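Supplementary notes (optional reading)

For those who missed the lab, this is the record we used. Protein: HTH tetR-type domain-containing protein. Length: 194 residues.
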Amino acid sequence: MAGRPREFDDQLVIQAAMDAFWRNGFEATSAQELVDSTGLGRGSLYAAFGSKENLYHEALRRYHRSSIEFHEEVFRQPGSVKDRLRILLEKGIELDFSDIERNGCMAIFSPLERAAKDKTVEGLSRSYIKELEGMFVALFSAGITTGEFERGRQAQSMAKAFMCAYFGFRVFGRIVHEPEYQQHAIEALIGSIQ
């Protein structure tokens, strides 16, 4: 006997759980908050996902996928590579400053909270960074090919350096909520890319 069919949309439940985890982090999100956020009873949640950890992993996968799609959209914009990098930084800051609760970037804060305790979070985070790095390498390679950046530069090194600065901006935006400060930093970073 197969059991009762599910009477809910997994993706909507994962989205609601992602919002709760993003708002509070893993540790501070209680089972009751997940029940309240998703509208499902504990039994249904555990039957569907097995554990709070498994639901968190699904939520993190969803966040990573939406982040990759966001970056793809920005990288498809017209203009120079520097223009697209500026757009990315400005959109990141815009997201951070429009976030009243200052949740920041779940892709950054999840591994800080969980990677040492949860190898799945560590693995998901590494895979996300690797995929994102590939996108940045392609973007910087295009800039080298078109002559926007100096020939002989290594696209992978440029991508890694930029990603460190970019994620630093996202963390810093959670601490220093001053748009003018961030805008000056963006201009300095973009100006330093040769």
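If you only remember one thing from this example: The radius of gyration is 19 Å.
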